[in-house]
Amino acid sequence: MLRLLFAAALVASLAGGSAQAARCGGDFNGFIASMAQEAQAAGVSAGVTNAALGGVAPDPAVLAFDRRQRYTFNKTFEQYVSTRVGPGRINGGRAMLQRHAALLSRIEQKFGVPRYILVAIWGLESDFGKGDTGKLPVVRTLATLAHDCRRTDLFQGELLAALKIVQRGDLQLRDMIGAYAGEIGQTQFLPSSYIKYGVDFDGDGHVDLRHSIPDVLASTANLLHTSGFKMGQPYGEGTPNFEAMREWNRAVVYRKTIGYFADRLMGQ
């Protein structure tokens, strides 16, 4: 789920303090060359930038989707929740709660975020990892959006963050596959959030939000914990926990849906 407005606050630090952002529009290859220089100035190796950006071309389908996409919800809560939280998804969530009970207990103890909220987000974002998490090359998608001048600062920062994910060894370049705004993994983290909140919870030395369920759920919990979510407190509209979930998604309808789903998982 898109969290673009909040990602904008992270891009300056991820850019590594470069003196001047690459100029949007104009020659695409020249733009990419500038981005490669900026990435290397921010600590990304020439090997990674050459492999990731060499031969990259803009994706017209990404731009077409971006221009018709609206980042607000037009449905009422009742309309939206009826399409997202049904008996099948609730039963699937309860099965995940049982299957991963020990893992979820460890995450609750470390981050103070209830398992029902985490499983609800997981279910809404990717049907517990079984659904569509995107099929687009993340670097190409972000390079396309960064070159476009509508939100170039935001997406230049996201592109730099994506390159840093590869630089850190969290994902191989071939695994950098995501959705239409570059979201990655089973709970759809933008690359800047991946860098900021990602947690290696399976202990393999990498943050893998595509394949590792421990990393996925712990990273989601870390985002909410860092944003102020408190265990044992209500999370309905108007509460501090509801506001803490704003870092996950600013749409009131979506946050209400998370809470509704969590309640159903608890049997309420």
From TrEMBL:
Keywords: Signal. Pfam families: SLT_2 (PF13406). It comes from the Bacteria. Residues 1-21 form the signal peptide. Residues 28-236 form the Transglycosylase SLT domain. This is Lytic murein transglycosylase.
